[in-house]
Amino acid sequence: MELKTDLPDPTHMFQELYSQLTLPSDGIPSKQVQMVLARLKDLGPEHLEKLLAFLFLKIEENEENEVIFCWLIGVLEDLVKSDLPSMIPSVMIDLQHALWPCLPNPSYKVKEAMAKLILSLGEGGYLCTDSAIVLIRFLIDECVKPLDDSTSDVTEINDEKKKLKNLCLEILTDCVHNPCMAKLMWPMLLEYIAPDQYASISLILSFVLYLAEKLQHEEQDALDINYSECVLGTIIMPTGNRRTPTPQFLLLQLMVLSYSDNMSKNIRRSALQILSILHHQIYKHLGKGWVLKIETLLNYLEGDGISCCQKFWEEKILLFLDYTLQCITKQKWIFHFLEDVIAQLRLGQGSSSEKSFLYQSWGIAQKLVDYKSSEDHLWTCLESINCKEKEECEVKTRGICSWCRDLGFWPPP
Predict the structure, then answer these.
(1) How many CB atoms lie within 10 A of CB 255?
(2) DSSP 238
(3) pLDDT tens, position by position, 27-45
């Protein structure tokens, strides 16, 4: 069939070319498909803006058609590779808007096509601006997603998942180590230091630690988080339920990871090292004395003492939390810390060791706030947390009793 390309309006020309496509069910390009692709690429330099707009429209129309969708993403990938000045910031914003609704698509062929497009964008230097942030989030989400065996043909499906995960990890690693992308990745990666990501926390902590060590040697405020910008939403696309963590939430998560007997020595070490680097971001008056206490904990950890006496290590971490909160004199700061503790307890997630730390950290923090507010928080906690396990009930009781004894509510036993 002869391709009609003598139409004056390029949009009509694109539609004429597109209408002559016959994509095989297996997605392997036929000769006709290759001819159409070549012609579209030839038209790119002269009609680039309208061609991209046409492709974005067709992507939206064919979100449910796996074969056509993957082919359209492939066309975009080829345009990026063709050295055209195609991905200027305004076009990247349009690309984000076009792809964002498709990112949750469960098809691994679609996800693989997306990942390959992102790889080409990265190689072309197009991922270094805020307009690429949704694509970066796609990579992170795929890297932290656990593998499961809940479907048939488990081996084949897991092979696809592993292949996709390895591809996304390769691209994400390049992004993290790209000097031009450091300020884009920070503080976004901090959002993934959260209870729902504990299964993949080793990877997240390794990336966060690398960036923190790198940025601390740059300008003085390189690690600072501008919360006003985060609230105002300089990130132009929806980001799900994730939010930039507050100092209180960040302290709590890193302390839980340092304490938990479910975490490896490497995870505990990384959590403490990140805390040490971010001491001014946690609270501006945490100084050298606080950092030295972390170094003491790290020395103990490196001496392999933890494998001999887990209970001693837990006591050390709790004492360090007590010291930390006593260094923070602002009542409002500690109130927010308490709210984060209670919110995490309400989720009911985590091991018994992690829940034990949460209850005891709650007790430590409660004794540092004024009596009336402490009482309000006590009843809020008691009414909102439903303990289902005997061990959890016991650690909850210990945390509450410790707080009550410190405030003289009843004589110590």
Answers:
(1) 21
(2) -
(3) 656 777 778 878 877 777 7
